[in-house]
Each structure stands twice: as C-alpha cells, then as structure tokens.
Design brief:
A hairpin with a 2-residue loop joins β4 and β5. A 6-stranded mixed sheet has the order 6-7-8-3-9-10, with helices on both faces. A 5-stranded antiparallel sheet has the order 11-13-14-12-15. Strands 2-1-4-5 form a 4-stranded antiparallel sheet, covered by helices on one side. It is an alpha/beta fold and about 350 residues long. The protein contains 11 helices and 15 strands. The protein has 2 domains: about 230 residues, P-loop containing nucleotide triphosphate hydrolases (Rossmann fold, 3-Layer(aba) Sandwich); about 80 residues, ACT domain (Alpha-Beta Plaits), CATH 3.30.70. About 35% of the residues lie in helices and about 30% in strands.
Length: about 350
C-alpha cells in the first residue's frame, strides 16, 4: 500500500489562539517498506499521523492510498477503511481488565469475527510476537516489552495493509527497543506491510527505516533514503539530530559520536561504506602542508552500510587548506563547512 499526501494542512484553535500543526505537507510513502517520520516535540508528527491514518480530516489537502483518495470518505466507508489500518502507540493502550489474548481478540470481536476464527488468529499472533505462553496472563503481569508485543499482535490481528507506529519505543529501555525494532522489521518483511514509524529518536530511524522525512514547524524540511540523510544531511534540524545520536539501541557500545572538545570543529567530514576504515586524515597531512585537530568522531552502523563522521579543524595556509579539502571531496568524503 503506497501513501500519497498532497499539501496537507491542519490548524487547531483554542482560547489562547490557533496553531498550524501541519503546514503544507506533501509526501510519497512507498509500499512494502518501513518509512520514518521524525521531528522534535511540537514539530507536527502526531498531528500528521492522525491525518494520514484517517483519525482526523485535514483542513486542506488530500490523502491517497494506492492512488484512491481516502480523506473524504463517507462515514460508513471510513469505518471500513480504518479496519485495515493497524496502530501501535507509546503507552500500549491495552485493556487492564483483559488478558493478553483477550486484548488481541478485541478488534476481531468489534468486526464480529467468528469465535473459532478469533481463537486461531489470536494463537497465530501470539506465536508471531514470541509470547505463545503468555496468552492467559493479565496485562498487569507483563513487562513493558511484552505489553508492546501484545499491542503489535493486536494491531496485526485484523490483517492490516498499513501499520502506524506512533513513538512505539519511546517508553522502552534501549535493549527492549532493539528487540521491538527487530520484531517490526521481521514482521514487515514477512507480511509485506507498509509501516510508518513516527519518532523523535534518530536511533529508531537508523536501526529500522529505509526512508525518512524530517519535520520541523509542521513542514517537511528534508526527506530521502536513510543512508543519504545520514551521509549528507541538509537541514539544520537533521544535523542537530545526528549530532546527539546515541549508540545502536540495545547494544553494548560506546556512543556512536564521541565529542571530547566543545571548541572548534569547523569541518564535518562524512565517510560512507569502506571509506570509514581508510586512514584518510593521515594521508591528508602527508600530502599537504596542513594540520588537523579532531574534535569528535564516530561511526553509525546502518543496516545497509556504515557512515563515519569526523568533526575537525584543518589549519594551514589558505591555498593548502583549499587543496586538502578538494582532495577529500575527490576521495569521496562529504565535507561540510561551518559558516
């Protein structure tokens, strides 16, 4: 299921004034992949996902599923369309009065599915999320990771063609986050789902998504392949996300970007793939009459390839520095210079 958004706008009005939460967003979300939407608090992520998932109607613009407009459906049509959409939330939204299995069964009961079908489907979903032995467990006895697995099972019980994950790992510890992201990737591949992940964590984008759109003040400021965004960020908000990214979720590693000096750092160098293992700076100092001072560095391990980052100063005569920077670019290193 591919999703197309055309100039979506949404304004909320209260006694204190009005806020345009989504301001002219146009996006194409390809089918059969995990697509990330990232932004800081107040960027408009949650408002956008409510529009895309048909929980709210945009003030302007259109939403298309597989080239069929869906934001203007009748009430009856909207109910039917929503039943093919799965949703996972930060706070799980499980019924505390129900067991794990009964929570999974709930959306099937709403659709008036036969009890025999519900029983088989619940067992299938429990196995899918690795909790075959926890079906009869009260929700209160489950860990945070188990609750999210039950929430995932419930969302998938209706066999959706789109799965929305709204800050689905924000309430989890890093190790549990890692396992949940792995589970979502496995499920997406097995079921050929279109998955949209809304997050404020660049680590989630790095570890789970193939493409990403960056939101700021209700607008898309950058979008593309995750590898391209990590290796060549264009917007200031994306660069800020990357500068504060932590180690791979749930893995016992040092932070992916270590900064040991807050001073200087005029040049940011990004190395893609095999270039991350090359002694580029050593060659640079031997080839040109320059000195360099590394202020920060690290490697991001993306599913497809590694992206290395060095924040450094390069000093010397102007002509030598220019030649050194040109050499870096010719060597395939992406060079960003602070103003």
């Amino acid at each position: 299921m591919n999703i197309t958004l055309e100039n979506l706008k949404k304004t909320y009005t209260s006694s204190t004034g009005s806020i345009t939460a989504v301001n002219g967003v146009s996006l194409k979300i390809p089918e059969n992949m995990i697509f990330g939407i990232i932004g800081k608090s107040g960027a408009g992520k949650s408002s956008l996902v409510r529009l895309v998932s048909l929980l709210e109607t945009p003030d302007e613009g259109s939403v298309f599923y597989n080239d069929v407009r869906v934001d203007n459906l009748s009430k009856a049509e909207l109910i039917q369309r929503r039943r093919k959409i799965g949703m996972i939330f930060q706070n799980f939204n499980l019924f505390s009065s129900r067991t794990a299995a009964q929570n999974i069964a709930y959306p099937l009961e709403i659709c008036k599915t036969r009890s025999s079908v519900i029983k088989d489907r619940v067992a299938e979903m429990l196995k899918l999320v690795g909790l075959e032995d926890r079906g009869s467990a009260p929700v209160s006895t489950l860990s945070g990771g188990q609750k999210q697995r039950i929430a995932i099972a419930r969302a998938l019980a209706i066999q959706p063609d789109i799965l929305f994950c709204d800050e689905a790992t924000s309430a989890l510890d890093p190790q549990t986050t890692h396992s949940i992201l792995n589970l979502i990737r496995e499920i997406q591949a097995k079921m050929s789902l279109s998955v949209v992940m809304i997050t404020h964590q660049m680590e989630v984008v790095r570890d789970a998504c193939e493409q990403v759109a960056v939101l700021d003040n209700g607008k898309v400021v950058e979008q593309g392949l995750v590898t391209d965004i990590f290796s060549h960020p264009k917007s200031e908000v994306t660069k800020d996300f990357l500068s504060h990214i932590s180690a791979d979720a749930g893995r016992q590693e040092k932070p992916s970007l270590l900064r040991w000096s807050e001073d200087g750092g005029k040049y940011t160098l990004r190395f893609v793939g095999s270039a991350t293992g090359e002694p580029v700076m050593s060659r640079l100092s031997k080839k040109f009459d320059i000195e360099y001072n590394i202020r920060a560095g690290g490697i991001q391990h993306l599913p497809s390839e590694d992206i290395g980052t060095l924040i450094t100063d390069i000093s010397g005569e102007e002509g030598e520095v220019k030649k050194a920077l040109a050499y870096l670019k010719e060597s395939g290193i992406i060079v960003e210079e602070d103003a």
